Amino acid sequence: MGEEKSQPILLSLIKRVLVAETDNLEQLTAMVGLNLAEDFTAADLSYTDLSQARLMEADFRGTDFRGANLQGANLCNADLRGADFSRANLSMSHFRNANLQGV
User: Could you give all domains of the chain from N- to C-terminal order, each with its CATH number?
Assistant: First the structure.
Protein backbone atom coordinates (compact mmCIF):
# COMPACT_ATOMS: atom_id res chain seq x y z
CA MET A 1 0.00 0.00 0.00
CA GLY A 2 1.40 3.38 -0.99
CA GLU A 3 2.12 6.07 1.56
CA GLU A 4 -0.55 8.33 0.05
CA LYS A 5 -3.18 5.62 0.66
CA SER A 6 -1.98 4.43 4.06
CA GLN A 7 -1.76 7.83 5.75
CA PRO A 8 -5.53 8.56 5.68
CA ILE A 9 -6.23 5.04 6.96
CA LEU A 10 -3.78 5.51 9.81
CA LEU A 11 -5.26 8.90 10.70
CA SER A 12 -8.75 7.38 10.71
CA LEU A 13 -7.63 4.61 13.09
CA ILE A 14 -5.96 7.11 15.41
CA LYS A 15 -9.14 9.20 15.52
CA ARG A 16 -11.21 6.12 16.40
CA VAL A 17 -8.92 5.40 19.35
CA LEU A 18 -8.89 9.01 20.54
CA VAL A 19 -12.69 9.28 20.66
CA ALA A 20 -13.25 5.79 22.09
CA GLU A 21 -15.16 5.60 25.33
CA THR A 22 -12.72 3.09 26.81
CA ASP A 23 -9.12 3.03 27.95
CA ASN A 24 -8.96 -0.78 27.89
CA LEU A 25 -6.08 -1.73 25.59
CA GLU A 26 -7.69 -5.00 24.47
CA GLN A 27 -10.84 -3.17 23.38
CA LEU A 28 -8.88 -0.41 21.67
CA THR A 29 -6.70 -2.81 19.67
CA ALA A 30 -9.74 -4.85 18.60
CA MET A 31 -11.45 -1.62 17.53
CA VAL A 32 -8.69 -0.94 15.00
CA GLY A 33 -8.29 -4.55 13.87
CA LEU A 34 -5.18 -5.47 15.84
CA ASN A 35 -4.55 -8.54 17.98
CA LEU A 36 -3.04 -8.15 21.45
CA ALA A 37 -1.85 -11.75 21.50
CA GLU A 38 1.06 -11.10 19.18
CA ASP A 39 4.57 -9.70 19.51
CA PHE A 40 4.91 -7.02 22.18
CA THR A 41 8.59 -7.63 22.91
CA ALA A 42 10.02 -4.76 24.99
CA ALA A 43 6.78 -2.77 24.72
CA ASP A 44 5.99 -0.02 27.21
CA LEU A 45 2.62 -1.04 28.65
CA SER A 46 3.18 0.72 31.95
CA TYR A 47 -0.02 1.95 33.61
CA THR A 48 -2.12 0.34 30.87
CA ASP A 49 -5.52 -1.21 31.60
CA LEU A 50 -5.25 -4.85 30.54
CA SER A 51 -7.89 -6.09 32.97
CA GLN A 52 -9.62 -9.26 31.76
CA ALA A 53 -7.41 -9.28 28.63
CA ARG A 54 -6.85 -12.59 26.84
CA LEU A 55 -3.10 -12.61 26.21
CA MET A 56 -2.42 -16.33 25.94
CA GLU A 57 0.79 -17.29 24.12
CA ALA A 58 1.74 -13.64 23.56
CA ASP A 59 5.40 -12.60 23.37
CA PHE A 60 6.03 -10.04 26.12
CA ARG A 61 9.78 -10.55 26.60
CA GLY A 62 11.23 -7.51 28.36
CA THR A 63 7.89 -5.69 28.40
CA ASP A 64 7.28 -2.91 30.93
CA PHE A 65 4.07 -3.64 32.86
CA ARG A 66 4.92 -1.31 35.78
CA GLY A 67 1.70 -0.09 37.40
CA ALA A 68 -0.46 -1.82 34.78
CA ASN A 69 -3.87 -3.24 35.66
CA LEU A 70 -3.74 -6.95 34.77
CA GLN A 71 -6.56 -7.96 37.10
CA GLY A 72 -8.12 -11.16 35.76
CA ALA A 73 -5.89 -11.20 32.67
CA ASN A 74 -5.07 -14.55 31.08
CA LEU A 75 -1.34 -14.82 30.37
CA CYS A 76 -1.20 -18.62 30.15
CA ASN A 77 1.65 -19.87 27.95
CA ALA A 78 2.88 -16.30 27.41
CA ASP A 79 6.59 -15.54 27.14
CA LEU A 80 7.21 -13.04 29.93
CA ARG A 81 10.98 -13.42 30.31
CA GLY A 82 12.46 -10.27 31.81
CA ALA A 83 9.13 -8.42 32.03
CA ASP A 84 8.74 -5.82 34.80
CA PHE A 85 5.54 -6.15 36.87
CA SER A 86 6.50 -3.64 39.59
CA ARG A 87 3.36 -2.15 41.20
CA ALA A 88 1.13 -3.95 38.67
CA ASN A 89 -2.27 -5.28 39.76
CA LEU A 90 -1.99 -9.04 39.19
CA SER A 91 -4.96 -10.14 41.27
CA MET A 92 -6.88 -13.04 39.74
CA SER A 93 -4.45 -13.17 36.78
CA HIS A 94 -3.61 -16.52 35.22
CA PHE A 95 0.00 -17.45 34.43
CA ARG A 96 -0.21 -21.24 33.89
CA ASN A 97 2.77 -22.44 31.82
CA ALA A 98 3.96 -18.86 31.25
CA ASN A 99 7.72 -18.35 31.01
CA LEU A 100 8.51 -16.09 33.97
CA GLN A 101 12.28 -16.43 33.88
CA GLY A 102 13.97 -13.28 35.16
CA VAL A 103 10.72 -11.71 36.37
Answer: 24-103 (2.160.20.80)
